[in-house]
Design brief:
Number of helices of chain B: 0
Order of helices and strands of chain A: EEEEEEEEE
Largest sheet of chain A: 5 strands, mixed
Strand content of chain B: over 45%
Helix content of chain A: under 10%
Largest interface: A-B, 27 and 30 residues
Number of strands of chain A: 9
Distance between the termini of chain B: 33 Å
Distance between the termini of chain A: 37 Å
Oligomer: heterodimer
Chain lengths: ~110, ~120
């Protein structure tokens, strides 16, 4: 699986959009980008995933660059409950090891 | 069940003892994963099952660690002769196992293992 790089921490004001970047420059054509988040003392929670098109669901939007070497997770209106560690991972079309990096700790401030 | 269930939620053991951690995946999920998370750290991959077989055991840190899965469902992670550095939260996840577009992982709440 391709390695991902994320900033270790970010702050965001409550009600503002949180934009979390992820670099996956070695991604291959059959690898999907997945985002999860982990709120303190809980197991990680799925947020969204995509291959090459931008995706949106009730939780977030995922923007993938045309060359697929990076992506951005967007939380359109961050709330205090969105404070968590956000993980970006890439997964092959064949199920297997999903390697999590250290993630980005997002702190939403009032 | 409705979600991934792990037991026990907490386990305190003495150094040198063996422990077994259990994971009940979501019904119908063929893929099952074990991860370890030390305090303040990210998730460390341990092992992955597709059905009852484990095509990827690359993350097991030593031969004291083993895992099995029976009936394509319940999995047990066994740690023999526990050491203090084994103290961590052990997380289990399951997925449909269809790969790429369907590899959404559903995680349990984990087992907090403390080795004294």
């Amino acid at each position: 699986d391709a390695k991902t790089t994320q900033p270790p921490s970010m702050d965001c004001a409550e009600g503002r959009a949180a934009n979390l970047p992820c670099n996956h420059s070695t991604i291959s054509g059959n690898e999907y980008v997945y985002w999860y988040r982990q709120i303190h003392s809980q197991g990680p929670q799925y947020i969204i995933h995509g291959l090459k098109n931008n995706e949106t669901n009730e939780m977030a939007s995922l923007i993938i660059t045309e060359d697929r070497k990076s992506s951005t997770l967007i939380l359109p209106h961050a709330t205090l409950r969105d404070t968590a560690v956000y993980y970006c991972i890439v997964i092959n079309t064949n199920a297997g090891k999903s390697t999590f990096g250290d993630g980005t700790t997002l702190t939403v401030k009032p | 069940g409705a979600g991934v269930s792990q037991s026990p939620s907490n386990k305190v053991t003495e150094k040198g003892k063996d422990v077994e951690l259990r994971c009940d995946p979501i019904s119908g999920h063929t893929a099952l994963y074990w991860y370890r998370q030390s305090l303040g750290q990210g998730l460390e991959f341990l092992i992955y099952f597709q059905g009852n077989s484990a095509p990827d055991k690359s993350g097991l840190p030593s031969d004291r660690f083993s895992a099995e899965r029976t009936g394509g469902s319940v999995s047990t992670l066994t740690i023999q002769r526990t050491q203090q550095e084994d103290s961590a939260v052990y997380l289990c996840a399951s997925s449909l196992g269809a790969g790429g577009a369907s590899e959404k992982l559903f995680f349990g709440s984990g087992t907090q293992l403390s080795v004294l």
